[in-house]
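[audit] Reproducing an earlier prediction to check determinism. Same input, same settings, fresh worker. If the tokens differ from the archived copy the diff job will pick it up downstream; this log only records the rerun itself.
[audit] input (259 residues):
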Amino acid sequence: MRIVLGLEYCGIGFCGWQSQPQGCGVQDALEAAVSAIAGEKTIVTAAGRTDTGVHAAFQVAHFDTPAQRPFTAWVRGVNSHLPSGVAVLWAREVGGDFHARFAATQRGYRYVLLNHPVRPGLNHGLIGWHHRPLDADAMNRAATHLIGRNDFSAFRAAECQAKSPIKELRLAQIERRGDFLLCDFRADGFLHHMVRNLMGSLVHIGAGMQSPEWMHEILQSRDRTLAAPTFDAAGLYLTHIRYPAHFALPESSERWPFA
């Protein structure tokens, strides 16, 4: 059987999603938990590989197993073997044509940014922070230059392994809620550090250090050195994954307080 899981996790204490030799990835923890229930070593594949310190309000992963288990075993049973920062939300059986990574048609991230003179304490590691007042309207005007199918080389990490820097960004939107800015990005795919690099430049614009038109100049330059530094990982969440309708899977989770 091919089983698909919906899960959430806090990135604090993990070295990102991907399995590492020292066993510090979320994938390592999930594979160990699933293997305990399946009764054999099981490999898990996710929709997206989040970086160190990045969280997932909604992640999707699949695995193949000959083990016959009720779905409650793949949820509550697996959760009983997971560290407290990771939780399976649901489990479904899917056909062999499903692939958590390659079948996804859209992914979405939300950056949660506290815009306040005083740094966060209670939510340290869970939200980003900028102390200077930010103009959300200017940031939204800048974001319009990013929409569409573009070469995002200027916002690509040097170690990015993607075959092409061309992605279709379908949503780039900043919403102010009191002292918080909720920054949403949806695309057919993302480059390594792409959202954090976009956030760095958007914050520069919001703080009045550059005009909204600067975003267009950076994008067209395809030069990473001309953009702002990479922003902190703390406030970044994987929030949205879309699959073709025939799989009948949820696209997001409503459990998250910043939904």
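[audit] rerun output stored. Observation attached for the diff report: The longest helix spans residues 26-38.
[audit] end
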